[in-house]
Amino acid sequence: MCANIMKIIAIDLDRDAYEMELPIIKKDNIEHKINFIQSSALSSLDELLNENDNRGIFDFAFINADRVSCEKYHERMLELVKVGCIIVYDNTLWFGTVAMTEECVKETIKPNKQHIIQFNKFLASDTRVQIAQVPIGDGITICWQL
User: Fold this and answer.
1) What are the TM regions of this chain, as residue ranges (predicted)?
2) What is the pTM of this model?
3) Among 31, 32, 113, 136, which residue's beta carbon has the most beta carbons within 10 A?
């Protein structure tokens, strides 16, 4: 019988975000299952890809990262996540601004609005995945890799 081994790789430039959740992680006794990497996501994903044993081994990926690089994350995740498994992107409705006219959008969030609209169109036309847009919170897009 195979053991069900769950491991999490968490990548973030900001270690404080991980440390904020560390008391809960320790309380639940799962610290040994989490490999926190303090780094840029793209360079860490490239390192994972350079280790060929990592291609197609992940069951799930959750991406909440800079909006400019979403398409690059997607390409890398398609290589790392198994066919038939899930990639989730956070904030794909961007405070609802993706459906708003420009004059209704706050100046501080306008730059990312265009990146997210472009990324949403990219995902919608990507024949390698089926997607579902879920209007929870700031929106998530669930991609099932075909």
Assistant:
1) none
2) 0.89
3) 113
